[in-house]
């Protein structure tokens, strides 16, 4: 037996386990104040991967920019827009 600890699942390091990864969020494509932002996936390992996911969602589900949702890659500490609650 060795004194080494077992490897982390999926190769996560301390920074990634602490929640300092990236998120892919959906925002209103028409910038309406009444629509909340929402999280598609969180704790993505890198900004590059999060950007690839967002671009793929925009290409596939964004209907060429005409859909209601635009997908963005943001850091984990990004504050989501809460729609009308932010205006009250």
List the helices and strands and how they pair.
Blueprint: H1 14-17, E1 22-28, E2 38-44, H2 47-61, E3 69-75
Antiparallel strand pairs: 1-2, 1-3
- The helix-and-strand class reads alpha+beta
Number of helices: 2
Stretches with pLDDT under 50, minimum 5 residues = 6-10
What letter string, H or E per element, gives the SSE order?
A: HEEHE
Tell me, briefly, the overall form.
flat
User: What's the helical proportion of residues?
Assistant: 10-25%
Q: Span between N and C termini?
A: 60 Å
User: Mean pLDDT, rounded to whole units?
Assistant: 79
Spatial order of the strands forming the largest sheet? 2-1-3
Estimated radius of gyration: 17 Å
Annotation, overall tally of beta strands: 3
Tell me what portion of residues adopts beta-strand conformation: 15-25%
What are the defining features of this structure?
single chain; 88 residues; alpha+beta; 3 strands; 24% strand
Description:
With 88 residues, this protein is α+β, with helices and mostly antiparallel strands. The protein has one domain. It has 2 helices and 3 strands; from the N terminus they run αββαβ. The protein has a 3-stranded antiparallel β-sheet, with helices on one face. It is flat. The model is unreliable at 6-10 (pLDDT under 50).
